[in-house]
Amino acid sequence: MEGTMSTRDRLLDAAARLFAERGIDSVSLAEIVRAAHQRNASAVHYHFGNRDEILRAVLARHVPAIANRRQELLVAARSRPAGDVRSAAEAIVRPVTEFAQRGWREWAYLQIGSELTGAVERTTPEIRALLTQTSGSAAWRLLRERCPTVPVDLWRVRREICIVFIGRSAADRARKLDGGGHAILTDDRFVENLIDMVIGAMTAPHRGG
To answer: Is the Cβ–Cβ distance between 11 and 54 less than 8 Å?
Structure first.
């Protein structure tokens, strides 16, 4: 399969690996070209235009898969009683953990997405719009409706921390297993525990003020 990949796909794979391993801002376009084994120094510019566009393309490859799975879980969660916090949290967590187990491209996407979550204001409007298409906002709104006692400011901070935590936890575990490492928990226990941790974080008692 590697031998039949297009130049565009080779560049996307190279960018995904480098962005995930070293961070988006630490990777030059020249490095992406070299990692993709391309002789034309302007290959990225030819196929994508600039750094933001290749980053957007890396993300766009995977957004539909997460969005489709999350929509399935949201339908199921909305059919549950209004006090069912767990089904809402599951719609947040499970699409990510299942996705990470598919392969290196998927966990690389999650690593990159986690980095962007912490600096979303520095991204382009196109990238921000793309990230909203995973239906994550809808899942978080449903969870908010089912545990409304947390003040809005605390909720926002906790949500941002949890989004990064979920993505990195799933990506780190998948990367470890890909490298031949051993996981302490089975896939099911890992997912269920992560859901428990998100519920715990979002519903934890808070001080007044």
So the answer is: yes
Domain 2-59 annotated CATH 1.10.10.60: yes
Instruction: Find where tokens 């962005």 sit.
Output: 19
Please tell me the pTM assigned to this model.
0.88
Per-residue tens of pLDDT for the chain, all 209 residues = 455 789 999 999 999 999 999 999 999 999 999 999 998 888 999 999 998 999 999 999 999 999 999 999 999 999 999 999 999 999 999 999 999 999 999 999 999 988 887 777 778 899 888 888 999 999 999 999 999 899 999 999 999 999 999 999 999 999 999 888 998 999 999 999 999 999 999 999 987 65
Which amino acid is it at 16?
A
Enumerate the domain spans of the chain: 2-59, 62-203
Q: Helix, strand, coil shares of the chain as percentages rounded to 5?
A: 75, 0, 25
CB atoms within 10 A of CB 82: 9
Checking phi first, is residue 49 left (phi over 0); if not, alpha (psi -120 to 50) or beta?
Answer: left
